[in-house]
Amino acid sequence: MRVGVLATIQHSMFSSGMANTSLAIAELMRELGNEVELIQMITEPASWWDDCKALAPHWKVVHAAEATGYDLLFEIGSLTVSAEKRARMTLRSIWVLRQGFLLKEMEACLFPTNLTLKREFQGMMEVWMMDAAAAVEPTAIQAVELLLAYLSESFPISGALASL
Q1: Which element (helix H / strand E) includes 128?
Q2: Which CATH number do you get for residue 7?
Q3: Contact 96, 76 (CB under 8 A)
Q4: Which value, in Å, is the radius of gyration of the alpha carbons in the chain?
Q5: How far apart are CA 95 and CA 164, in angstroms?
Q6: Pick from 119, 118, 116, 74: which is nearest to 95 by CA?
Q7: Cα atoms in the Cβ-side hemisphere of radius 13 Å centred on 126
Q8: What is the pLDDT of residues 13-58, one digit of tens each?
Q9: How many domains does the chain have?
Q10: Predicted confidence (pLDDT) per residue in 70-113, tens digit
Q11: pTM for the full predicted model
């Protein structure tokens, strides 16, 4: 199976949890026997993270504009794509929530900025919430389930909620 994992490859691997999560999911999917590519989401060219260059030759990195034909796509936290791009990239997508969900979502609704992404869930089949994120906000799972129940009326969602 061909799998794509969204990533922002720049600076230090340890400058954000998103980089660690992207690489961890990519490693997991590769260990499970899949062909995995990291999808670079930033426009500036970056060959690899500065502090772990020894890993670079072991991974294929594709720029988001060229990413197509994946059987499965992993979107992580705020690193998501529009429904149009998702349809071009993959048939199935999983949204991985690695941090608290409720506060960030409510804040984005109340105080939107030009950096606030519009949530587009068409083509997204599952939401995975890490245990640490669920522990920070015990009602976050219920909120995601409610969101998915609402969304399933608009379009079918094959998976409800999984926990890493």
Answers
A1: strand 124-129
A2: 3.40.50
A3: yes
A4: 16
A5: 12
A6: 74
A7: 15
A8: 888 888 999 999 999 999 999 999 999 998 876 678 889 899 999 9
A9: 1
A10: 999 999 988 899 999 999 999 899 999 888 778 777 777 777 77
A11: 0.84
